[in-house]
Amino acid sequence: MPVICPSVMAASEEQYNKQMERIAHFAQRIQIDLTDGHFAEPRTVAADKAWWPAGVKADIHIMHKDPEHAARVVAKHKPHMIIVHAEAEGSFEAFAHFCREHHIKVGVALLQKTSPEHIIPALHLVDHVLIFAGELGHHAGHADLNQLEKVEYLKHHKPDLEIGWDGGINDQNISQLAFAGVDVFNVGGFIQKAENPEKAYIALERIADETGET
Question: Sign of the C-alpha dihedral, residues 92, 164, 31, 173?
């Protein structure tokens, strides 16, 4: 079943709390975006300030040049998954084993320029690949649908792999993403900037569900 996953990306604790409050009462799974101001600008709240409501699955998307420290900090709070970038520094294998030891799912994100072939040697360690098709550090970016080629390639190599999409999702393109095989839709601006976030969430969920049934 398609999963609509609202995202939180905030430069201050006040913004973070406000964004979380806008989605916490209806979202079952959320994505928390953390940036370091170097790999991705601007800098968001620090990893030790990340929180989420009890009972909600939290995917932590770490957009850091060196994600090890942030991963260790958020792991203490038992997120559903931690996602690091294929383009980041450090040992991905060590990161994956760290997550396994803490019973946390392993995610890897690919920027537009990064070929999925880059991660094939480590694909057996990965639960989720996030196709990043927007603009680092910003909500409501443009969805580069040319990135959908990566979905087919990755599913061919690992059919049970969960594929996420981050960047520019709205009610005009979600059906195309769902039809192409995207499983998790990480939605920023379309929900966070909506007058009624829950209504926007329900609209996306309905379209994705209907596409999956065809």
Answer: positive
Give the pTM.
0.95
* pLDDT tens per residue across span 164-200: 999 999 999 999 999 999 999 999 999 999 999 999 9
Question: Any idea where the domains of the chain sit in the sequence?
Answer: 3-213
User: In the CATH hierarchy, which fold is given to the domain comprising 3-213?
Assistant: TIM Barrel (3.20.20)
Closest CA to 99 of 119, 131, 75: 75
Cis peptide before 42 (omega within 30 of 0): yes
Strand-pair category, 57-63 with 105-110: unpaired
Residue 145, Cα to own-chain centre: how many angstroms? 17
pLDDT digits (tens, 9 = 90+) for 49-72: 999 999 999 999 999 999 999 999
Question: 32 — phi, psi (to 5°)?
Answer: -110, 120
